[in-house]
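Hallway conversation turned thread

IA: we were arguing at lunch whether anyone had actually written out DUF885 domain-containing protein end to end. Turns out nobody had. So, for the record, here is the sequence (584 residues) and right after it the structure tokens. Reply here if something looks off.
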Amino acid sequence: MRATGILAGVLALGCSTTLAAQTAPGDGALDRLATRMVDEAIAYDPSTAYFVGVPPRDNRGWADYSAAGFADYRARNDALLADLKRLDPATLSQRKRFTYAGMIERLEAERAMRVCRLELWDVNHMSGWHLVLSDIARDQPLETAAQRADALARWSALPAVVDTQIANARAGLAAGYSAPRAVVARVVKQIDGIANAKPEDTPFWQLVDRSKDTAFKASMRAIIVDRLQPAFARYHGFLRDEYAPRAREALAVSANPDGRACYAASLRFYTTLARPPEQVFQLGQQTVSGNLATVRELGGKKFGSDALPDILAGINQAADNKFTSEQDQIAFSSAVVDRARQKSAPAFAAMPVQRMEVKPFEPYLRGSGASSYYERQIDPKKLAYYRIASEKWQEDTRGGAEITAVHEGYPGHHMQVATATEAAAPVDNLLINSAYSEGWARYSEALSEELGIYQTDYALMTRRLWPARGMVIDPGLHVMGWTREQAIAFIRESGRWQGSDADDLIDRVAIIPGQLTAYDSGGLEIRALRQQAEAALGACFGLPEFHARVLETGIVPLSALRAHIEQWVAAKSCPAGAGGERGR
């Protein structure tokens, strides 16, 4: 992939490795637009302040999910985009050009995504509106009497948000939009885990636990029992009795109105690339084929057979590749995280200050099909978490757990996110894209092999069995006519997802079109940039410096990352005789 269009022009204006020290005449204007972008996001959803690193201004309000609320926010973003495009990027410092590129990409991609009408079918077990409530409860300020009063007001008002979501879903059904029925069943399970759980097992109970004020604790408990759980019981009944029977059977987003256009917009949103689905599908197939050739070679040495079924059986049936209990998996994964932090250090110029720990899912998420994930914490003094789906320990393997742990922790998500957070401006926390963030984590899975982090032979094979299959399954399911059974067979061929895990993954792909392609779209690009730099610089190439150049950009569109690395390679001084094209 080459940098093209506006991002190529933006990033082709100069390169430096001391980004923080640079200033330029247009920086102030961009800073004002960036502040405006953050302000608009917080005005729409006050809880956004908790996640972008600015002091909260409104601890009572909720996002306005009404049609009027969406329309107003979108109009404000359109005006912001127009003003942003009037700014000449030639007047910006290099650091600000990254911000400019990210803002342009995000605003344009979000505008393109409007064709999906996601607000009309936000019944989503992976990233639905209800899943952020736990994070808001975790971060809601409670230190002062005024803050506790705000909390009581905010959470007392949540039932109105629930009713708005019910109204939106009804409107979606009337217009022909819905989530797949299989996904709806998963959300019903999650909502049941809120509506009918003990109050102590709801995501809202954190508010009670975190306060020492007896009166507040009693009032908050009453809100949970008397207002919140009845509201979610109402939502649960709506989903089960009214929505599910009318939800679409088809998994493909193309079954919704303008579904093919929605898929194209989703691919762009998650990958930051303008690749058509057919090209993504073909690249995925080619990559999977190359990976399988290596797996067969490794399997022949390990199991005496290069037949894929024999290799998969050897991996999945080996007693030393299994866990004995859920706690065994958690302890094993924690040990991988600790080892990975130590062994990653030589490959990086600096390690992040913030630490990460392994922690199981909260009760309401267990068994709902949600995947393990990285839980970011904006305050570097607080712990981040690798939230592990440990309730499925019997279906996981030690080799697979090693890969997931490095993907979520070091040198994967936590390494990148915590490094970026230490230098991030609030707007940077709005500009996350999956291609860079998940691409870095996918690249890190291979890097971990180089660094000697994996301790099982199984991980060396397992990590090659899955990558790039998402680039095949995702467009295959959404626009190329693949059936659920066809996609599951292709998933299970990887050996990574067995039993109910394969069904979980299919429903994840169904409800987040395009996102699964981002991992390898980004991972392949970072790997290609490294190979390009190694070839050009020869003995002058240094892995810690390359990683520093990749990470210093923060999360940017892939074309911006490519332009930055290519400029660094072109500008790097390499003494004659040191090797590489620049040394000859």
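OS: looked through it. Confidence is low (pLDDT under 50) at residues 1-17, 579-584.
IA: good, adding that to the notes. The first strand starts at residue 356 and ends at 360.
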